Amino acid sequence: MSTISIRLNDKDDTLIRKYAQLHQMDLSSFIRQAVIEKIEDEYDLTLFNKVWEEERYQDRISHDDLKKALGL
């Protein structure tokens, strides 16, 4: 297991510690979770943008039209 050190001003340090405490998390777990979520969010957005660019000009049909086509 590795260790990462970050520098924070007093205001940010207090904010982060109080937030973790409010959610009953130890500081290390909170920071790890926040960083992983940030990476996942950015990855999801990148993937969405890629798919959007690939498919945005394709023909689409509404749910109602699909149901009609399927006889539902």
UniProtKB/TrEMBL annotation:
Q: Which InterPro entries match?
A: DUF6290
Xref: Pfam families: DUF6290
Q: What is this protein called?
A: CopG family transcriptional regulator
